[in-house]
Structures are given as structure tokens and as C-alpha cells.
Amino acid sequence: MKTLAVVVTTPPYSHLTITALTYVEAALVAGINVIGVFFYQDGVMHANEDISIASDEYQAIAHWQRLQQEYQLPLHICITAAEKRGIACDAIDNDKINNAFTVSGLGELVELTTKATRLVQF
Amino acid sequence: MTSIEQQSSSSAQENGLAIINSKAPFSSTHGKDALDIALIFGSFEQKVSLFFQGDGVYQLIADQDGSLLAIKDYLKTFSAFEFYDIEDIYVCQQSLSNRQLDENFHIDEVKVLSSIEFSAALNRHQHVLRF
Predict the structure, then answer these.
(1) Is a pLDDT exceeding 80 seen at residue B85?
(2) In CATH, what number is assigned to the domain containing residue A92?
(3) Which of A111, B9, B14, B87 has its CA 20 to 30 A from that of B121?
(4) In this complex, which of B29, B41, B130 lies closest to A110 when CB atoms are compared?
(5) Smallest CA–CA separation between A55 and chain B, in Å?
(6) Residue B37 is nearest to which of A109, A114, A118, comparing CB atoms?
(7) Chain A residue closest to B36 (CA)?
(8) Could you give the CA distance from residue B47 to residue B53 in angstroms, rounded to a whole number?
(9) B residues 37-96 near A, CB within 8 Å?
(10) What integer pLDDT is reported at residue B46 of this predicted model?
């Protein structure tokens, strides 16, 4: 079976993220096996619980959360990139991290890449 | 058979990940972020090739010192590529000549390719990331 992995490097307040979300949702609706989304560089900002985007703007974080719940879509953040951006990943029950996201490392990206038929970066 | 046809005929074997470096070394963290991925793939014994294109070619030019700008000089780590079995390092000849840069690189084993060869080499990979 063909599998898809996605890399997101843009933050929740970037319009480019909307393209990524639309793409991932379209793939899921089409029944494609999306094995995971890896958030790297500014992409890790999606997991930041303290980010609040004006309610009349696109709610990227809420959409990732919804996809994670509806499709059990794994959302991985790179720990090094996250810590660098003030998202502390060390404590258990960390209230800085949105619980839809899993703290991972670049090793997870290796795993996703080797398993995926196709890797798409946004 | 032309060299391009020969390259594409071997396309099934190479596979792996291609990382395109398209940004100058010291104005952003893209180069370092790409390097971190390359080294992780190397340490997991996964095949990874590096492509340098556009302003990314500046990452290969010799005699640069990021520490003058108080930047950690991640370019020094390029010399460790052989320990990570990263052997396929390609640079776009057109990008070099557009910037009037000589083929004076700070690491060995850099293969200078024409635009056509560059795209053919890229096409041999299953996955591509661009930084």
C-alpha cells in the first residue's frame, strides 16, 4: 500500500500552512495512508500552547488537532527545533505543548522517510 | 547512449533522500537545519545525497569563517561527511558561474554538474527535501 509522509516547516501564522493542511486533509479524505506529519524549523510552533491567533483568522492549530482526532494522524515535533523556540519539552504533563502533538526527534523523520512511498515538504 | 540516459537507467538503484541546499550559509539557519537532517540519516545508515544550488553554493566555498559574525561555523562539520558515509555531494555549475565563484570548495568529493546533469541526479532519488 502506498504511504505518504509530510514535512511542515512553516508556522501556524503562515499562509503556506493552509496549503499543507488542505493537502493533508484531501489525502486523508481520499483514503491515502498518511503515516505522519513531521514539524521542523518554524513548523514546531504549531505545538505551542501559548499561541493565540485572532478568531477571524485561519486556525491552523485547531485544524491539525481535528485531523489528529478524526484520523489518528500522528503529529511529530522536532524536539531540538521546539526547545530552540521556547517550547520546553522536558517535563512530563507539559502544559506548553498542545497534546495533539508528539515530541520526537529527527530519528522520527528518518523513520517516516524510509516507510513512506512519498514525502512531501511544505 | 548519452551520459544522461545512463544515469536515468540506473535510477532504480540509488533512491534514498536528496537534500537541496538553496540558501546562503550565514543569513539563516536553513543550512544548519539541513545538515542536521543529513547527519541523522547518515548515522541511521540511510542513503542521503546533498545538492547545492542557487545561493546554497556559498555553503561549499572555502575560507569562510562564521565565527567572525558570532555564528557557530557549521560548515566545518562538512568535513565529517565521509564518517557518515555521505559521499554524493553535487553542486550546480550554473549557480557557481552566475555568482562568478571558482570551484574552490572546503571539502573534497564535490561533483560539479551542469543544470541537466543536476536535475537528472536529483531525479534518481525517491525523496527530496529543500532548505
Answers:
(1) yes
(2) 3.40.1260.10
(3) A111
(4) B41
(5) 31
(6) A109
(7) A106
(8) 20
(9) 37, 40-41, 44, 46
(10) 96
